[in-house]
Amino acid sequence: MNIIEKTDEEILAIANPFWNDLVKYSNNKNYGAFTRNFSEDMLRGANEIEMGKQFARSKLTKGLEKDPEYLGLIRRGEHVTVLYKQTNKNRVGDEYLGRLVLGYNEEGEIKIFGATIF
């Protein structure tokens, strides 16, 4: 099955817990748990040293608020992108765009193929 064939509700039922875990483990600076739902492609492409530095230095990655606002879905090819409006308690009034890319891996499991916050 291709993930883009799922309904919005089915996708959000998967995406929201994934995003909430990313927020939780980012705030806790728990790199291992943060990456646990990443696809193998995502893990291979992630620079562990740079991600570790980001966890250590970035105020943005340590103060993310729970319950971001869902903005929409973009379906493309074999992946779906879920967009969120994310806020941060360390930067009151600032809003950020969260992007979560999901798809099926080789084993038929839904995994994270991209996750960013701007």
Set down the secondary structure blueprint:
Elements (H helix, E strand, L loop, with lengths): L7 H20 L3 H4 L5 H6 L2 H10 L11 E8 L2 E9 L7 E10 L5 E8 L1
Antiparallel strand pairs: 1-2, 2-3, 3-4
Folded structure, characterized:
- This protein has one domain: Nuclear Transport Factor 2, Chain: A (Roll), CATH 3.10.450.50.
- It has four helices and four strands, in the order ααααββββ.
- The longest helix has 20 residues.
- It is globular.
- The chain has a four-stranded antiparallel β-sheet with strand order 1-2-3-4.
- A hairpin with a 2-residue loop joins β1 and β2.
- By secondary structure, it is an alpha+beta fold.
List keywords for this structure.
single chain, 118 residues, alpha+beta, Nuclear Transport Factor 2, Chain: A
Compact description:
The protein is an alpha+beta fold and 118 residues long. The chain has helices spanning 8-27, 31-34, 40-45, 48-57, and strands at residues 69-76, 79-87, 95-104, 110-117. It has a 4-stranded antiparallel sheet.
Spatially, the strands of the biggest sheet line up as 1-2-3-4
Which stretches are poorly predicted, pLDDT < 50 over at least 5 residues? none
Binned, the helix content reads 25-40%
User: Structural class, please?
Assistant: alpha+beta
Reading the helices and strands in chain order gives: HHHHEEEE
Number of domains: 1
CATH-defined topology: Nuclear Transport Factor 2, Chain: A
Question: What is the name of the CATH class?
Answer: Alpha Beta
